[in-house]
Amino acid sequence: MEPESRLLHYFLAVADELNFTRAAARLHIAQPSLSAQIRALESQLGVQLLRRSTRAVSLTEAGQALADRGPAALSGLQQAWEAARYAGRGETGTLRLAYPLSAGHDTAPRLVEALHDSYPSITVTTEVLPSPQVVQAVGSGRADAGIARAPEPGDGIRLDPLRRDPLGVIVPDSHPLTRRDVVDLAAVAGFPVVLHPRSANPSHYDFIVGLFTTRGLQPDLLERDIAFDLSHGFLTCGGSELVGRSSAEGLPRSLTWIPLTDEEYVAVALVLPAGPHAPVVDRFVQVARTHAADNDWLR
């Protein structure tokens, strides 16, 4: 077995001072104890490190070699201990984050930036998936954490409220509603409404449809595969799309987001493992909750 790092620390103090009395005072230990520790180190290494006389202490060739390389070795070992502590506290490592395209315009980038500001040693890898697949990815361990819009509970995950996103309607410039500053759902129902198939995100689909049916409205629903259409080209049919305000960031100039007068909100949640998880997930949750509180996301 190799000597303890403590013995190397003691030896380096003696090698620096070349005096046991001064080295012992520097280390805050008794001189006889220090002498015994150095003899133990020499015994474990099987070599003599110091030449001792009543007048002086000097380094042998072996002692000089250890004195030359010892500081870097001790520093490297200390860095290894610190790396282990940081990783154990979740302050370093890799976070695998999954989120839908709707969170990619504002919510996810802001949380990733906030995490980097607080814990620059954490690396984030991302994967863009529909919200139901985000839930599946976290539940299966493929992702460490996720962000999802109107998610349903699933096996192996828990949901942590993150954001109440004010709803509005996206319309093309040619749409009659474009001239309005705000719009109610009755006006929206007077024109086709584009919505993803229910199978793509059942809970979000039911939420949007329920907004109309609870008011006795029956819009013409146009189901389209809209999950990865950044240009919102599906609105060329003359329809509109109900989305949260954060999802409307970075819209093309040809499109406008108009807030609803009905003050409805779509729920955005963190998707987290229900069981054991990497410590880095705790740091992400901590940062996300702080960011949500500071920016009134759950008002």
TrEMBL record:
The keyword Transcription applies. Gene3D superfamilies: Periplasmic binding protein-like II, Winged helix-like DNA-binding domain superfamily/Winged helix DNA-binding domain. One of its GO terms (cellular component) is protein-DNA complex. Residues 3-60 form the HTH lysR-type domain. Keywords: DNA-binding, Transcription, Transcription regulation. It comes from the Bacteria. GO terms for molecular function: DNA binding; DNA-binding transcription factor activity. Belongs to the LysR transcriptional regulatory family. This is DNA-binding transcriptional LysR family regulator.
